[in-house]
């Protein structure tokens, strides 16, 4: 077992990520991805992010098992599984620098899309949200996000925002949405964890970082669960997307500079 000061910095970022996870059922890995992979390296950061989630995901899965949209969960898993297998392969063939650029670009794009939707349209442009007509193109986009989310999750463990594009449209209730998303991660992250153990990337270094990060993640997770019914989710997510833009943009910029 080893210790680095970076373990504390990465753990502190987990408090923010797992607070969001406790509230919404997604977000902990993608929010912390830039810091986790930037400080620990992608080879250690990806299995770290996978294993850190499992104790909390299992806990919530057992606690809220009766409040899950099982039909939608089945669709998500079926659409994601092929991508997970492809993503697991890509993780081992893509260089760490390329992986960081991909993660940074993905996080930045997701943040910009959500900032436009949640901040610019309602607050700057004063555009009121209207009921949208569901078209075949929009349905295809949602299912495409599911498939791509599987690939991203299999490779980098940050497919949550893409998978959310489908789930947030299909599952309207806040608690049921969180619990359904949580069950997705129980299944997909367990698959990723088994694959990572078999490949040997779960090293003593990763376990040492987990020993420091788990207590901090627990603080964020249980605070998020406690405040689920009390906080204004829309305002909180606006802050989260701004944080995502900063950390994702920073990883993208620094990784590009390292390559160039």
Q: Could you name the key traits of this structure?
A:
single chain, 260 residues, mainly alpha, 10 helices
Integer tally of domains: 1
Residue fraction in strands? under 5%
Class from helix and strand fractions: mainly alpha
Quaternary state of the chains: single chain
Instruction: Let me know the number of strands.
Output: 0
Radius of gyration (CA) equals 17 Å
- Largest sheet report: none
Poorly predicted ranges: none
Overall geometric form? globular
Helical proportion?
Answer: over 70%
Report the span from N to C terminus.
35 Å
Number of helices: 10
Q: What sequence of helices (H) and strands (E) makes up the elements?
A: HHHHHHHHHH
Mean of residue pLDDT? 87
GO cellular component, one term: plasma membrane
Subcellular location: Cell membrane
Protein name: Probable membrane transporter protein
Pfam family, one: TauE
Describe this structure in words.
The chain is an all-alpha fold and 260 residues long. It has one domain (5-259). It is 83% helix and 0% strand. It contains ten helices and no strands. The chain has helices at residues 5-24, 28-40, 42-63, 70-93, 96-124, 136-156, 160-170, 174-199, 204-226, 233-259. The longest helix is centred in the middle third of the chain and has 29 residues, at 96-124. The radius of gyration is 17 Å and the shape is globular. The mean pLDDT is 87.
SSE inventory with pairings:
Elements: H1 5-24, H2 28-40, H3 42-63, H4 70-93, H5 96-124, H6 136-156, H7 160-170, H8 174-199, H9 204-226, H10 233-259
Helix pairs in contact: 1-2, 1-8, 1-9, 2-3, 2-5, 2-10, 3-8, 3-9, 4-6, 4-8, 5-10, 6-7
